[in-house]
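To fix ideas, we quote verbatim a fold written out as tokens:
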Amino acid sequence: MVEAHRRHDLLDVEPGAWAAAVTARADLAGVPHVAAWVDDGRPVILRRSHPGEEVGLVPVGLPLPPRDGKRRIGLALPPDAVRPRAPVLLSEARAACPPSWAATIEALIALGERHGAAPRPFGSLLWQSLTGLPYLSERSDLDLLWPVPGAIPSRLMEGIAAIEARAPMRLDGEILLPDGGGVNWRELHGAGPGTVLVKHRDRLALREAAALLTGDPE
């Protein structure tokens, strides 16, 4: 089943619905950036549902910058209060990267072009590029999503691993499957004949690693 909204999707929120949701949370009073988040033109991101959350609401989140406590804010909104925003590509976010990352960024973009899987940032790079707030440092990891249209090329993960071996940062992230599930690239790369955990917005599943892969040659 293909999910209407998938983990990591960016969503814009209707301002009135955002104000109502924030006002209903006494713990968010005075928390930096949150009340004005939507009015400032910033999206939220779809997250996994938490146990006990009301069925039918859309689970969303946003992280605060490290200087503001690095807190992760989670809310659940009515479906008619959100609308999709186009994802941000790594090629569009590179201006927000530390200069020492430049060669790695170009190598990752080229790798995605070879395999038809244009990488998308999430985590610190995504939020810094979207908000202009300081999320990144020279010690930050680079979190990437690699959407694939079908079976995962095994050489894609080999390529990520080879780039990481000479990169100044750790490369984290997921391969995004056509059904909306996400699998950690590092776990899949090292799984051999075993199983890997696939995360969906409302469930977890174990899948045979070999069934997800193709030996797609370059």
